[in-house]
Automatic annotation (TrEMBL):
Keywords per UniProt: Hydrolase
Organism whose genome encodes this protein: Alloiococcus otitis ATCC 51267
Matches recorded under Pfam families: Hydrolase_3
Superkingdom in the source lineage: Bacteria
Protein's UniProt name: Cof-like hydrolase
GO molecular function, one term: phosphatase activity
């Protein structure tokens, strides 16, 4: 079998609903690496909330964060193929004004290794893995910097969909909006044209891996282009219907049933 590049999303794919990686998944991923295959994380999360999973899986590959806006190598600070794509400061400033909507729980802007927040709300347990002191709380201050990503956490999915339409109508030429669910549904906003397949392509080029030898796994609409790009794009059993419709395959089991690990075991005969 040719060397494969396996691209894994985190939330809803590699992680269960408790945001943990099972021992079975860790065992399988490590076995595949020992067999000579490559595994890379491609996530909408910032680096600060995904590096711990990178360590748990024993990875030594580049990583893609912010839905493709940041491609880098955690073990090589000056990795030359890496890149970071930012949103213009005026667009970021306007998006930050969404904090005035009383149903918006948090607006955050990711700038290099810093995160600026509109409130003290914590949208998921490891949003600040080293404690909320990591955040730079803005309160009523005006924010006016370029940012890799702006996140808007809402009260419910109805508002999420409404804001998505409004943001696209107002800034569609400048931004790409991706969404995911959870306790506080999130809109992830990056520069126009930015998506996960960009980062995955960069990693594949670096290793000289053909598209036919790429497997990609995801569950949400921010995985759409990545699933299309891969030679074998696999939607999780718990994935949204539009992703299942364009995927080459669907895992028989969900992220809470070790769906990723079981699929890889069968595919690679681990």
């Amino acid at each position: 079998m040719n060397q494969k590049l396996i691209a894994i999303d985190l939330d809803g794919t590699t992680l269960n609903t408790q945001q943990k990686i099972s021992k079975r998944t860790i065992r399988v991923i490590k076995a595949l690496q020992e067999a000579g295959h490559l595994v890379t994380i491609v996530t909408g999360r910032p680096y600060r909330t995904s590096f711990n999973y990178y360590q748990d899986l024993g990875l030594k590959t580049p990583m893609v964060n912010f839905n493709g806006a940041y491609c880098h190598h955690p073990q090589e600070k000056n990795w030359s193929p890496g890149y970071r794509i930012t949103l213009p400061s005026d667009v970021v400033s306007e998006l930050f004004r969404l904090k005035h909507n009383d149903k918006v729980k948090l607006v955050s802007a990711e700038v290099d290794d810093s995160v600026y927040t509109s409130s003290h709300y914590i949208p998921y347990p490891d949003f600040f893995p080293h404690g909320p002191g990591q955040a730079k709380y803005l309160g009523n201050q005006v924010f006016n910097q370029e940012a890799t990503c702006v996140n808007v956490f809402t009260q419910d999915k109805y508002l999420q969909r409404k804001l998505e339409k409004e943001i696209i109508a107002d800034y569609g030429n400048f931004v790409e909006v991706r969404t995911w669910g959870g306790f506080a549904p999130c809109l992830e906003i990056v520069s126009s044209g930015t998506q996960k397949a960009m980062g995955l392509e960069q990693v594949a080029k670096y290793y000289g891996i053909d598209r036919d030898d790429i497997l990609a796994f995801g569950d949400e609409n921010n995985d759409y282009e990545m699933i299309q790009y891969a030679g074998i794009g696999v939607a999780m059993n718990n994935a949204i219907l539009p992703l299942k419709e364009i995927a080459n395959d669907i895992t028989p089991y969900s992220n809470d049933e070790d769906g990723l690990a079981r699929y890889l075991e069968d595919y690679f005969n681990v």
